[in-house]
Amino acid sequence: MAIAAKKNYTCDGVEKVEFSRALQQVSDQIRLTEQKLTMKIENELEKDYKKQQEKILSAKLFIANIS
Asked: The organism sits in which domain of life (predicted)?
């Protein structure tokens, strides 16, 4: 029974623990990539929003000066 407990479980030549570790690394890389992409998108949206707000303010001031 002790021999069975020490046996490394493999599937197609890859140990279960090694596969699990590799899968976790890939998962971590995907998560970090997603976070970077999300931050970049949020920054771009904020930048575009501020530009639009400036244009709106400029248009309001122009209209106020004409009136």
From this structure: Bacteria
For residues 12 and 19, the answer to whether their CB atoms sit within 8 Å is no
Which residue type, as a one-letter code, is found at position 23? L
- DSSP 8-state code for residue 42: H
CB burial readout 4-14, b (16+ within 10 A) else e: eeeeeeeeeee
Express each pLDDT in 12-54 by its tens digit.
677 888 989 999 999 999 999 999 999 999 999 999 999 999 9
d(CA 38, CA 44): 10
Nearest to 20 by CA among 10, 30, 5: 10
